[in-house]
Amino acid sequence: MISVAYAAEHAAEHASESVFMDPHFWVYVSFIVVVGFLFKPVFTAAAKALDARAVAIKDRIDEAQKLQEDASAALALYQRKQQEALKDAQEIVARAKTDAEALAAQAAKDLEATLARREKQALDRIAQAEAQAQREVTAVAVDVAIEAARAVLAKSLSGGDQATRLVDDAIKDLAVKLH
Q1: CA 112 distance to own-chain centroid
Q2: Tell me: the pLDDT tens digits for 4-40?
Q3: Residue spans per domain, the chain
Q4: How big is the chain by its Cα radius of gyration, in Å?
Q5: CA triplet 116, 119, 123: central angle to 5 degrees?
Q6: How many CA atoms lie within 13 A of 15 on its CB side?
Q7: Cα dihedral sign for 141, 145, 146, 148?
């Protein structure tokens, strides 16, 4: 109870005093004034630091956007080059196929020409062999005919020297006429 009585008495003393006489009040006021004076420079410095940080972040974002645009342009360029290289490769393959087909056709044509030429050569050799054989057969036939004619004439002209000369002349003429 003593504390309640003391508090009531002490409250009565303070109630009569003015708020401006209270030291706590002036401590609060001075604290607020000091904080107010310190708040402006601290706030200005913090705002400047935040503004500088915002500018740095904006610069980094702008740089990142520029790098992204450069990368997109480079990607588009390389994709275009890749498509051109693919088209070139397809053209080379198509040209190679065309060339291979042309070479195959030319090789087939050359083979046909070679076979035709060899066939003609073989036919020419056969024709030459036939002509040679025919000449040989003709020569043998002429020789046989001459011998037969000589024998027949020799038998029919048994008269000697004139018969032999006549046969020899006929044989000479016959050889020239048959060959």
Answers
A1: 35
A2: 556 555 555 555 557 778 888 889 999 998 888 888 8
A3: 2-178
A4: 68
A5: 135
A6: 6
A7: positive
